[in-house]
Structures are given as C-alpha cells and as structure tokens.
Design brief:
This protein is an alpha/beta fold. The chain is 27% helix and 32% strand. The longest helix has 17 residues.
Length: 236
C-alpha cells in the first residue's frame, strides 16, 4: 500500500490531485498540506512512505524538503520542466508536469511502489506486509514457505517456523520475492516460494521442506520451468 502525503501550495491543484488519488485502490492519502512549513512541523508524526509535492512553493522549495525525506519515495510535480534534472539528482522516483493526468499519475505510483518494495528489507531482515490482522512485521528468517491462498489468489499464506502463520493480503509472489533477502528464498512453482534453509531433500518433481522445531515434513511440487533455478540456488 502506498501511504501518501500531498503537498502543494495551490489549493485548486491540491484538490484536483486529491480527487485523482481517490481512484487508486492501492493509494491511501495520509494527509494533504498546502503549507510546506506545517508539513515539516508534523512530519515526524506522520506514517507515510510516499510524498507527491510541488517544487515551487513560498518560503520552502520542494527540492529542499525532499532532502529531509531520504527514506521516502518522492514524486515531484510542477508546471516548469526546467527543474527535472534537479529532481532526479535527488533520486526522485518520478517528475510530473501539471496539469495532472490520471494515467500519468498511475505510472508515477507504480514507480513509487517498486521503490518501496526495493527498499523495504531492513538490515535485520524484517519485512512489512498487509495481512488479515493489519500491518504485520515479519522476520524473514522465520518464514518456511509461502503459498497462494485457495480462497483468493491475491492473498498469500505464509507458513512460519516460529509463531502463528500469516495471511498476506493483496500481494503477488513476485512482490514478496522483492521484499525477501536475496539468495535465501526460491520460487519452485506458480503457487509456492520456499526458504532454501528448510529444504531437506528434493527430486525432479518435488521438494521436501522440514519445519524447524517440529517433525513436520512438507512436500511441494517442483515445476519444470523453475527446476534449474532452484537447483542452482542450492549451490553454496
């Protein structure tokens, strides 16, 4: 989920942007500001991962504000194209020209989502997912395997080695793989991702996973399109 702050000193432009954002189901508008200083006064209390902000604003420049938000996906907006180079020097995920267009805004939010996913893994291997219990933080090393839910393919069942299992909501296996530590997990078929550390044995057709701390042995299908990558992933 994109949790977004909107910042634009021009109220008509801000109102139009709010209306457009209401059409995107994966975008939550946390708060809107037409005063950059009020935004900075509250920024430490706001839970957001993305900011769509104007560049030319009174007293505070959007480029300067972006420097104070190193861990947020920044989407700049302006009516002036000459700021594009400066925007990308700050590693903004996108740069929008006014007036806003819904299809162009969708592209910007898609880029923001990729940025969020790519930056989600913490140094402790903790990932954050939307689940049936709300925002859930999971230690990646405690994941045994992941499976597409039978009741809804948009949901994913996460089998944990320690603690209750998790039902992740509205996320693809590819998106989960981007969150997980590189080299520790592998896709073995269209429905399953496994933690390589749980692999006990395998054949050309199946992978046997042992759940840590239990006697449980889980047999999962190893599909041909994923077989070579799986075997190569096991090589130390």
């Amino acid at each position: 989920m994109i949790r977004c702050i909107l910042l634009d000193d021009e109220l008509p432009s801000l109102s139009y942007l709010q209306a457009l954002c209401g059409n995107f189901k994966d975008v939550e508008i946390v708060k809107s500001f037409n005063n950059p200083q009020k935004f900075l006064d509250q920024v430490d209390k706001l839970d957001f991962n993305t900011c769509v902000m104007d560049i030319l604003m009174p007293n505070l420049n959007g480029l300067d504000i972006a420097k104070l938000l190193p861990n947020k996906a920044i989407i700049f907006s302006t009516a002036y194209k000459e700021f594009a180079a400066d925007a990308f020097d700050l590693h903004a995920v996108d740069y929008l020209r006014k007036p806003y267009q819904a299809d162009r805004l969708q592209i910007a939010f898609d880029k923001a989502m990729k940025w969020i996913i790519a930056n989600a893994v913490s140094s402790e291997g903790i990932i954050e997912l939307n689940s049936n219990q709300g925002k859930t933080r999971i230690t990646a090393s405690q994941i045994a395997y992941i499976e597409v839910a039978d009741h809804d393919r948009r949901d994913k069942y996460i089998k944990m080695t320690d603690g209750p299992d998790i039902l992740a909501k509205n996320i693809s296996l590819d998106e989960i793989m981007m969150l997980l530590p590189a080299g520790k997990f592998c896709r073995i078929n269209r429905r399953n991702v496994i933690a390589l550390a749980t692999v006990s044995s395998y054949t050309a057709q199946y992978v046997i996973c042992k759940i840590k701390g239990t006697s449980a042995m889980i047999k999962l299908t190893l599909s041909a399109p994923y077989r070579d990558h799986f075997i190569n992933s096991l090589v130390v």
